[in-house]
Amino acid sequence: MKDKIQLYGFNNLTKTLSFNIYDISYASSEREKKDYIAYIDDQYNSERLTGILLEVTNIIGAHVLNISKQDYDPQGASVTLLISEELVPTDLMDVSCNQSDFIQYLMREHMLRDTVVAHLDKSHVTVHTYPEFHPNNDISSFRVDIDVATCGRVSPLNALNYLISSFDSDVITMDYRIRGFTRDVDGKKYYKDHEINSIQNYIDEKTMTRYDAIDVNVYQSNIFHTKMILKEITLADYLFNVDPRELLPEVRLSLKDRINKEMLEIYYGTNIY
């Protein structure tokens, strides 16, 4: 909305962005598959994912209250940030949130000075990774699920381009929903506080030229869904520890077809026979 709405009290709208990316790779031998999983686990461990989520929080104009992170055995990682729109004095923070050494880390590394944040309902950022392969299939995949839920003025859509650029994304699915309502000073309800008819409007034009995209939106319910798939693939980007020049032309063609098939199955959510 172009003109600011004078609200009665706090902006109660909850805006949630669910962002999923899929990265595909070819790994033929058992050793290559394990090496691929180990590589993904190293590239996207909980420490790096925490850094990505901290930047997301900074981009959308929110602040960190609490961080929880974990690497898993045999693979995968999760990170959760509790975030808020407003800053409050340190002495008002729940002492059970974070260990003191982590608080000092935040102050030292991310310039939070002597202030932290308050807890606002339904404001959080989470990420989970799912590297996987099957022993009978030499096409492996890596999935990242990210959820950004905010209350108030901050919008998770502002971090969309940063999220896309932070990962190698062959297939991307995004869901955005605005829940609840807020009131102006006269008591009138508002079910959204910004104009939107497609998630694609918030994605950089250069990025959109690389992907095919479709929307499935339910406008009357403020539900928006966009799926994107890479238009063109370069085989060398999908071969893990394999030089495509060492493969016969018919093998290269077969592999490219199989990688395309894997991407299409994920994109359309169905098995292709």
Backbone shape: globular
Query: CATH superfamily, called what?
Result: S-adenosylmethionine decarboxylase
| Spatial gap, N to C terminus | 47 Å
Order of strands, main sheet, comes to: 2-3-6-7-1-8-12-11
How many separate domains?
A: 1
How many DSSP H or I helices?
Answer: 6
CATH topology: S-adenosylmethionine decarboxylase
Question: If you had to describe this structure to a student in words, what would you say it looks like?
Answer:
There is one protein chain. Residues 99-104 and 110-122 have low confidence and may be disordered. The chain has 6 helices and 12 strands. It is globular, with a radius of gyration of 21 Å. Strand 2 (63-71) and strand 3 (77-84) form a beta hairpin. It has 273 residues and is α+β, with helices and mostly antiparallel strands. The protein has a single domain, classed as S-adenosylmethionine decarboxylase (4-Layer Sandwich), CATH 3.60.90. The chain has an 8-stranded antiparallel beta sheet with strand order 2-3-6-7-1-8-12-11. A two-stranded antiparallel ribbon has the order 4-5.
Structure summary:
This protein is an alpha+beta fold and 273 residues long.
Spell out the key features of this protein:
273 residues; alpha+beta; S-adenosylmethionine decarboxylase; eight-stranded antiparallel sheet; two-stranded antiparallel sheet; 12 strands; 26% helix
Mind sketching the topology for me?
Layout lengths: L13 E13 L3 H14 L2 H14 L3 E9 L5 E8 L2 E3 L10 H11 L4 E3 L6 E11 L2 E15 L8 H6 L5 E9 L2 E2 L5 E2 L14 H5 L1 E5 L7 E8 L18 H20 L5
Antiparallel strand pairs: 1-7, 1-8, 2-3, 3-6, 4-5, 6-7, 8-12, 9-10, 11-12
